[in-house]
Design brief:
Distance between the termini of chain A: 41 Å
Largest sheet of chain B: 7 strands, mixed
Distance between the termini of chain B: 36 Å
Helix content of chain A: under 10%
Number of strands of chain A: 12
Low-confidence stretches of chain A: none
Number of helices of chain A: 0
Number of strands of chain B: 11
Strand content of chain B: over 45%
Structural class of chain B: mainly beta
Largest sheet of chain A: 6 strands, mixed
Shape of chain B: globular
Oligomer: heterodimer
Helix content of chain B: under 10%
Order of helices and strands of chain B: EEEEEEEEEEE
Mean pLDDT of chain B: 94
Largest interface: A-B, 25 and 25 residues
Number of helices of chain B: 0
Structural class of chain A: mainly beta
Chain lengths: ~110, ~110
């Protein structure tokens, strides 16, 4: 069975700080990995995805993620966060069905 | 350009009542699914469907029923509501390809008293 772990439950950063959110998955086969973002009071939206090719993927709003197969990881990064990045971030894996991690709440302090 | 439409947005039920949460998509997506979102637990899959006439259970299916008679609609039925079903429910749809992005509805906030 596929599963996703996000170890950071709540991260608080100041504006302009660098961000890295951890995501580890367990699945033995070919994986399709996603990061979704949920702004306060809104539904989930896709930030970026990986399914093949270059393991460094770039998404919207300056986010990127690196797929490291040997570590079963797909960490999300952003060099300089903004107050508007305050949101909840979900890592997900899809093989047949889409499975989410428990999410990381990101709070950016102006 | 409707995307995924969920109704209602808010609902209060009494314990034991039944109701149906509606979900419709206009993108001709084969794959549709229902999640519940609870604090600290992320999104947990309730039921999903890979096409009309085909449904399967997810992680937390107990107390919920689904059917998929058309490609567009995927209603979620609560048979006898319980306080433990108080949650925010999201419907999502995508093409069946594993790399396909999921599109989410706006959510239904359900309170069972």
């Amino acid at each position: 069975a596929q599963s996703v772990s996000q170890h950071n439950h709540h991260v608080i950063l100041s504006e302009a700080a660098s961000l890295e959110l951890g995501c580890n998955y367990s699945y033995g086969g070919t994986v399709n990995l996603f990061w979704y973002v949920q702004y306060p009071g809104q539904h989930l939206q896709l930030l970026l995805k990986y399914f093949s090719g270059d393991p460094l993927v770039k998404g919207i709003k300056g986010f990127e993620a690196e797929f490291i197969k040997s570590k079963f990881s797909f960490n999300l990064r952003k060099p300089s966060v903004q107050w508007s990045d305050t949101a909840e971030y979900f890592c997900a894996v899809k093989w047949g069905k889409l499975t989410f991690g428990t999410g990381t709440r990101l709070t950016i302090i102006p | 350009n409707a995307g995924v439409t969920q109704t209602p947005k808010f609902q209060v039920l009494k314990t034991g009542q039944s109701m149906t949460l509606q979900c419709a998509q206009d993108m001709n997506h084969e794959y549709m699914s229902w999640y519940r979102q609870d604090p600290g637990m992320g999104l947990r899959l309730i039921h999903y469907s890979v096409g009309a006439g085909i449904t399967d259970q997810g992680e937390v299916p107990n107390g919920y029923n689904v059917s998929r008679s058309t490609t567009e609609d995927f209603p979620l039925r609560l048979l006898s509501a319980a306080p433990s079903q108080t949650s925010v429910y999201f419907c999502a749809s995508s093409y069946h390809r594993n790399e396909a992005e999921a599109f989410f509805g706006q959510g239904t906030r359900l309170t069972v008293v």
